[in-house]
Write a structure and sequence with these properties.
By secondary structure, this protein is α+β, with helices and mostly antiparallel strands. Helices cover 31% and strands 28% of the residues. The chain has 11 helices and 19 strands.
């Protein structure tokens, strides 16, 4: 994107969204929370009246060393779940569980609304309207977005979604004089009506219904991580991200987990990641230990061992039996990797005169992988090693050895290569966009 030159890759530092949110949260004082709904807040204050001294001592409370907490980053497309522990001493963060979550962001609520439109007006009309009146479709989704943001479990008034004139007019032409009002009435849903102002009217229950499946997926994902045996002693659950501004989402999280965890919602929900990314840029060592999300490795040839290796993998070369497609693991899924941790392997080029070596990198969600042909293993990148500038003298002709070092502890994988006979570092690059 032009942000950094290949000769100076350190000009660009990649910050991971869940980590950025966690870094920002780590320095918050617990008084910096989003206000709860007024009636709930008044109820809480009344129940806490006898503990004023205790409450005041917690107002300036800060996350201490040894504290374990979960961050749920709810965005438009995805929900990312991470668990960190504040380490003793410098207060760096240690990731306790590899990033989890999935495609459970606010766009799923939009898809529920779109499915409702399909149920009412038919899939053929909706698809044709998108193609023939794209500006009208955008206007419709913008109108729904405004109502979606206002949805709240504490409001009893209905929510009206304005249908663009192009939608109403095109539907009448498409159906040959059947009106939008007639379609909504014939759908016969008590929670979806046609208002006298010419709008699509949702009862509070009707709007909440559009959120139900997405909220269930989010809480289920959080619950699954919390039940991991290695994650005992989590004290706080922080909810951040743009979608976290939804009162329905906040209420669902509190209702599900407030008995076991302290639910904390920072004031700057939308800016949590941005501010944390800036803090990470100033101090990239803020996260000292990460968990590898995938198992990474390369495919290699090893000496064939009867009984251990399948016969189908046996190949013969220079009167030697070899086993092909062996997955040489660099790092396993969910393995703890500290910043600066390196994995070193030695490889021999197929020919001494080879100018470039290309090694395919494979990954898998599974921890134990035997072969690159196993189910779930996929090629995820290509490693290029340029040895054209590394000239071997007459005494070094014959077998060549390249020592490859990969560093996994940072936010991106780094690679370096050494031509062992000459002692020279050779050019190497890794491309994870190359499929």
């Amino acid at each position: 994107a032009g942000l950094a030159s290949p000769s100076k890759p350190d000009q660009l530092l990649i910050a991971l969204e869940p980590e950025a949110a966690s870094i920002y949260i780590r320095k918050l004082r617990l008084r910096e929370l989003a206000p709860e709904h007024q009636s709930q807040r008044q109820k809480w204050l009344r129940s806490s009246a006898g503990n004023i001294a205790k409450s005041n001592s917690q107002v300036s409370e800060k996350i201490r060393h040894g504290t374990r907490y979960m961050v749920v980053d709810c965005g438009g497309g995805t929900v990312d779940i991470t668990v960190h522990e504040v380490e003793e001493g410098p207060g760096t963060l240690k990731e306790l569980h590899k990033a989890a979550g999935g495609m459970h962001g606010s766009v799923n609520v939009d898809q529920e609304f779109e499915q409702l439109l399909v149920n009412i007006f038919g899939s053929t009309f909706i698809e044709e309207f998108k193609v023939k009146r794209p500006a009208g479709w955008v206007d419709l989704m913008i109108a729904f977005e405004a109502r979606k943001r206002n949805a709240s479990p504490w409001k009893n008034n209905p929510l009206n979604v304005s249908l663009p004139f192009s939608f109403i007019d095109y539907y009448k032409k498409f159906t040959k004089n059947k009106t939008v009002e007639e379609a909504i009435r014939s759908y016969d849903d008590a929670d979806v009506k046609w208002s006298s102002q010419g709008m699509m009217r949702f009862t509070p229950e009707g709007m909440q219904r559009l959120f139900a499946r997405t909220l269930a997926s989010i809480t289920s994902g959080v619950e699954e991580v919390l039940h991991s045996p290695s994650l005992q002693g989590i004290s706080y659950l922080f909810v951040v991200g743009g979608f976290a501004q939804s009162a329905l989402l906040q209420t669902a999280m509190r209702k599900k987990f407030s008995n076991d965890l302290r639910i904390i919602i920072p004031r700057d929900l939308g800016l949590s990641i941005l501010k944390g990314a800036v803090q990470f840029g100033l101090d990239p060592s803020a996260v000292r230990v990460r968990r590898s999300r995938l198992t990474y490795g390369v495919g290699v040839l090893n000496k064939f061992q009867p009984g251990k290796h399948p016969e189908a993998k046996k190949v013969t070369k220079d009167n030697m039996d070899w086993c092909k497609d062996i997955f040489d693991t660099f790092v396993q899924s969910d393995q703890s990797v500290a910043v600066g941790d390196k994995v070193t392997r030695s490889y021999t080029p197929a020919k001494p005169s080879q100018q470039e070596i290309i090694i395919n990198i494979y990954c898998s969600d599974r921890e134990n992988v035997r072969f690159i042909t196993d189910a779930g293993v996929r090629k995820c990148g290509t490693l290029h090693i340029d040895v054209s500038d590394s000239q071997c003298g007459p005494s070094l002709q014959g077998r060549r050895e390249l020592q490859l070092t990969m560093q996994y502890g940072d936010t991106e994988i780094k690679v370096s290569a050494l031509d062992v006979p000459t002692g020279k570092c050779v050019k190497s690059s890794i491309d994870f966009l190359n499929k």
